[in-house]
Specification:
Shape of chain A: globular
Helix content of chain B: under 10%
Number of helices of chain A: 1
Number of domains of chain B: 1
Number of strands of chain A: 3
Strand order of the largest sheet of chain B: 2-4-5-12-7-10-13
Shape of chain B: globular
Radius of gyration of chain A: 12 Å
Largest sheet of chain B: 7 strands, antiparallel
Strand content of chain A: 15-25%
CATH class of chain B: Mainly Beta
CATH class of one domain in chain A: Mainly Beta
Oligomer: heterodimer
CATH architecture of one domain in chain A: Single Sheet
Bound molecules: zinc ion
Largest interface: A-B, 26 and 27 residues
Number of strands of chain B: 22
CATH topology of chain B: Jelly Rolls
CATH topology of one domain in chain A: Rubrerythrin, domain 2
Strand content of chain B: over 45%
Strand order of the largest sheet of chain A: 2-1-3
Helix content of chain A: under 10%
Order of helices and strands of chain B: EEEEEEEEEEEEEEEEEEEEEEH
CATH architecture of chain B: Sandwich
CATH superfamily of chain B: Jelly Rolls
Number of helices of chain B: 1
Largest sheet of chain A: 3 strands, antiparallel
Radius of gyration of chain B: 18 Å
Order of helices and strands of chain A: EEEH
Structural class of chain B: mainly beta
Chain lengths: ~70, ~270
């Protein structure tokens, strides 16, 4: 069985990467696993390196997931 | 089981970021202006210490030096960012809600929940130094509606008792996290007791001024203690002390657990 899709938070600014949403405008299709993102990838908002993101088990606030799609 | 660590003032991460050169788009101010940042936990360039404590990811003791010094407008999401001004004046431009320009002086503090996205700019406009404590907290949920609240801690009328600034007490600023920030300012030596919500909560005690003994650990100016698994904290504070208490739920955080395991028992009593 596939591992559940996860969410990651940038420790430099709070930007969140959601594997289920990807970042289509940055070339990461929905469903792209964190492990499959190159190691030299940086936060699109603040430039923090990939290894300074933290995996978070956190849900979205009401309406948050729709805003995350367009963030 | 009680667990604790002591972090001396000089053991914190130390970064100086200048307004000219490579960081000029990040840091505002006249040439030579600079931000001095003492980090209790890993943050940006400093990655040599603890990754955090409970919900706390950043505890920064920052000084903005030089006219116009500070952080240019920059974006945030999700983090709950608090600032407590110790000296000088902080001009804060924030887009949360309708947006505002706020000016904070000694005793003033804010809670900015970046949630679904916000931008802010923080400046010390005058040539006088500005010193603030910055606290970044993990939120309870992603993409909360952004919010900004501010308040004043009156050092003259709230002396010699532990007063809650952020949390669920009357008059405290609300926060969407299992967290409380309290402050004790003394003008005479005295004994105090701090009781966390449960023994499972952790308390990060930071001595901004003066000195104190906390559960028999002696702390000087800008020293700190993180402790969890205790019913109460017994504090013997010296005259003219200023002490912060950050009480937080202790998350089962893989990053922090891995760091503690790698660093063994020497930093955990
Ligand atoms: Zn970032």
């Amino acid at each position: 069985m596939d591992a559940p899709l996860k969410r990651w938070l940038c420790l430099g600014c709070g930007f969140s990467y959601d594997e289920s949403l990807g970042l289509p405008e940055h070339g990461l299709a929905p469903g792209t696993r964190w492990a499959d993102i190159p190691d030299d990838w940086v936060c699109p908002d603040c430039g923090t390196p990939k290894n300074q993101f933290e995996m978070v088990e956190m849900g979205y606030a009401e309406a948050g997931v729709d805003q995350a799609r367009i963030a | 089981m009680p667990k604790s660590f002591v972090l001396r003032a000089g053991e914190r991460g130390h970064d100086v970021i200048y307004s000219d050169g490579s960081a000029s788009s990040y840091v505002a101010g006249h040439p030579g202006s600079h931000i001095t940042r003492e980090s209790s936990f890993n943050f940006h360039q400093y990655q040599g210490g603890r990754p955090g404590f409970g919900t706390v990811r950043v505890f920064g003791d920052e000084v903005f030096s030089g006219a116009g010094c500070g952080y240019n407008m920059h974006p945030h999401h999700n983090f709950i960012i608090c600032a407590f001004v110790l000296e000088g004046e902080l001009t804060h431009i924030n887009t949360a809600g309708q947006g505002m320009v706020d000016q904070l002086r000694q005793g003033d503090y804010y809670v900015f929940s970046a949630g679904s996205g916000g931008k802010h700019c923080e400046l010390s406009i005058s040539p006088e130094n500005m010193n603030a404590i910055y606290l970044w907290l993990m939120p309870g949920q992603l993409f909360l509606p952004p919010s900004y609240h501010r308040a004043h801690f009156d050092i003259r009328t709230r002396r010699n008792r532990i007063a809650q600034l952020v949390g669920d007490a009357d008059g405290a600023l609300p926060v969407s996290q299992d967290l409380r920030v309290s402050r004790l300012v003394t003008d005479r030596a005295g004994g105090f007791t701090y009781t966390p919500r449960t023994p499972e909560h952790g308390v990060y005690v930071f001595v901004a001024e003066g000195s104190a003994t906390v559960n028999e650990v002696a702390l000087g100016r800008r020293d700190s203690l993180g402790i969890s698994g205790v019913e109460t904290l017994a504090i013997e504070a010296a005259d003219s002390s200023d002490i912060f208490f950050v009480e937080t739920a202790m998350l089962d955080d893989a990053r922090i657990r891995a760091w503690e395991k790698a660093h063994g028992a020497d930093l955990l009593d």
